[in-house]
Structures are given as C-alpha cells and as structure tokens.
Specification:
Elements lengths: L5 H28 L3 H4 L11 E8 L7 E3 L2 E7 L8 E6 L8 E2 L3 E3 L5 E4 L4 E6 L10 E8 L6 H9 L2 H32 L5 H11 L4 H19 L6 H24 L4 H9 L4 H12 L1 H16 L3 H6 L9 H11 L4 H31 L6
Antiparallel strand pairs: 1-9, 2-3, 3-8, 4-5, 4-9, 6-7, 7-8
Helix pairs in contact: 1-13, 3-13, 4-7, 4-10, 4-12, 5-7, 7-10, 10-13, 12-13
Length: about 375
C-alpha cells in the first residue's frame, strides 16, 4: 500500500487550498455576470442561490399617465419589470421610514393624494385634484428577491457597450501575434540546435541577452521607427500589421529560448539516422522535429497567446482607440472609468475577457504540462 507522510499530506492540502483560492473568485465573477444588476449592487455573489432581502427606491409615473375615474385622478403602474419574481412585504413614502406600511395599506402624501401597493409591485395612486407635476413620487419598498440569473448583462456589454467589436479586434491581434513568432522561432530554434554555421553561439547569446531587455524601454523607439517606415511607404504606424510585428519582436526571444531548450533534448541518433538516409534539414524538421515537438509548440502557443490577449500597454501604444481597432483590455479600461459604478458591466466584461484564455488553457493543458517538463532531463 502507498504510504503517506505528513509532508505529502500537507502538500496536498496546500494544493487544494491554492486551487480553491484560484477557482472561487473565477466562479464568483461568472455568477456575478449572470445576476440582476439591482441585486448585484447590494449583495455578494455567494447570496445568489438564496432569497435576498432588498430595499429599493422607485418613482411613480407623472401627470402624463393619469386618468379620471369616479371623481378621482388615478395613476396605475408597476414598479417591477415583468418576471422579476420579487415580492414586496412593506413600503414607505419617506426616506426616514422606508417600511412604514404593509402591502395593501393606504399611504397619504402631504398633498392629500393616496397610494397603495400590492406584493407584486402594482401601485394605485389617486388624488381628488388633477396631477400637475411631470415627475412622480418616490416609493421605498422592502422586498424579497429570489435567485434570478439572466443574460441581459452580456447583451448590454457585447451589443451596446462595444465590447463585442473589441473582442473581435483582440482575436485579430492575438492569433497572428501568436502564430507568427511560433513559426519563426521553430525554424530559428532548429537552426541553433542542429545546424552548424559561423556565429551560431553569438546568435544564441543574443537571444538570451534579449530576455532581460525591459519591454517598456523599447516601445517608443520602435514606434518612432514604425512612423518613419510608415511615412516612407504610406502605411499607418498604428495598425494591425504594426502590432503584429511588435508582439512578434517582443515574444521572439522567449519563444526561441523555450523551444531551443526542448529541441536540444531530442536524441542526436535520430538526427544522424535522418542524415544518413539522405534527409535534408527541411525534411528532418518537418517529418521528425515537428511531430515530436507538439507539446512544446502547445506550451509556447499558450504562453504567447495569454501574454498577447492580456496585454494592455502594447495595445495602447500601437493601436488607436476608435472602435475598429481598440482591444478588449483597453475597452475594459475605458469602462472602468466611465462605468465604474456599474458592477454588472465590469464583472461581465471581465469574465468575457478571461473566458478565452481559460478555454485555451483547459483545451491544451495536457500538452502544456508535457511541454513544461520536456527538456528538463536528457534522453
């Protein structure tokens, strides 16, 4: 039987804690994105599966909605939207006493008009005098709200707030910015590992040295070069091809180094056998190296894609902010400033942003783990 030591049990418990700490906020963000915006503003996501007590303020309709009936001027309407499921227990007409009346009781305003409201939110406001104000009266209600989940937040974010176009723009940036450096680094890493030529070690040292260069130091010089080249060929510097080249340049050193570290662990005998059989370097690369390097390619794809998808700085520098170019992170930054109090907008936008990296990681995670440990041992 397998023996468990105290240290192994502690390690497993610690791993479970880390998994819970990572999953809980993600699950909470997803639940919050599906909640009603009024309930979300006053209660945490962990209360979404139980009935919640809420205190809310509504305003009745004004003079344009009045009708005359039996000597009274009457305004009828409801405070809840259809299908809300909320049930009112008490209501009030002043902020000092928001639950002064039971449902069905009649409350009297200072002007002598009377109002009553039932548990479903239908109110009946009447006065002997004609209503003359365009704005109605405020009603304070104490109600219970059942667990309700809706996709309205996603519709508003994707269609009205412009996040849908930003989502597409981010894909237009992330896919080429991931595939281009992956293709280049695969040939580059192979040549550094299995080809003999003058200056190979110097190139490898340059790649390793490039890993320590801060990205922020090169942003403005590269943008200036893009502006000069764009002016020469009549191409805008801030464009999708520009940001593709920027991400390719910034990610090429790390992707080449990771793949080189994997390729050097492949058996040398296999490469020699291919050469004996008359295979060229291209044949060896396409028929031997590529099939054996799928886990490494998957790991590099995930790391590069996640970096590009979550990038904000490079996107702000190399793309404009108009709707046809703005990326998802930049759009979320704008919403944080303009809609910072609308939690339903921010939580939904944040979950949309993280859904694609989660999907990519979980679909390729078995290759990712194999790619990370590949090259750690020889043979």
């Amino acid at each position: 039987m397998k023996k468990f030591s105290i240290s192994s049990i502690f390690a497993q418990l610690l791993l479970i804690v880390f998994v819970f700490v990572w999953i809980a906020p993600t699950f909470g963000l997803f639940i919050s994105s599906l909640r009603d915006k009024d309930v979300l503003a006053i209660s945490g996501w962990w209360t979404s599966f139980t009935t919640t007590d809420v205190n809310e303020i509504y305003r009745t309709k004004g003079m344009e909605a009045q009708i005359e009936e039996d000597g009274y001027f009457i305004i009828k309407d409801k405070v809840f939207e259809e299908g809300s499921g909320k049930v009112i227990s008490r209501f009030g007409i002043t902020s000092k006493n928001i639950d002064e009346f039971m449902v069905g009781e009649i409350a009297v305003f200072k002007d002598g008009s009377e109002i009553s409201i039932d548990e479903k939110g239908n109110y009946f406001w009447r006065s002997k005098e004609k209503f003359t104000k365009k704005k109605g009266k405020r009603i304070f209600v104490s109600a219970t709200s059942p667990p309700i989940f809706t996709l309205d937040n996603y519709k508003e974010v994707l269609l009205r707030e412009g996040l849908g176009q930003a989502f597409i723009n981010t894909f237009a940036v992330a896919i080429p910015s991931t595939l281009i450096p992956l293709i280049i680094c695969s040939f580059f890493a192979y040549s550094l590992t299995w080809m003999r030529f003058f200056g190979r070690d110097l190139l490898l040292a340059t790649v390793i040295a490039a890993l320590v260069v801060p990205l922020q130091m090169s942003l403005i010089p590269i943008l200036s070069i893009y502006n000069d080249i764009g002016a020469l060929f009549g191409v805008a510097a801030k464009s999708f091809p520009g940001i593709w080249m920027a991400h390719t340049g910034f990610g090429l050193a790390s992707t080449t180094f990771l793949l080189w570290n994997f390729l050097k662990s492949l058996p040398n005998e296999m490469m020699e056998a291919a050469r004996v059989d008359g295979a060229t370097h291209y044949d060896t690369f396409m028929k031997i190296v590529v099939p054996l390097s799928i886990p490494a390619f998957a790991s590099i794809f995930i790391l590069q894609f996640l970096w590009v998808w979550n990038d904000l700085l490079v996107g702000l520098v190399f793309l404009d902010k108009h709707p046809s170019e703005i990326i998802l992170t930049a759009k979320l930054k704008e919403l944080l400033g303009s809609r910072g109090e609308n939690w339903e907008i921010l939580t939904t936008g944040a979950f949309i942003s993280m859904s694609v990296p989660l999907l990519i990681f979980f679909s390729l995670q078995r290759y990712f783990i194999r790619g990370l440990v590949a090259g750690s041992v020889k043979g």
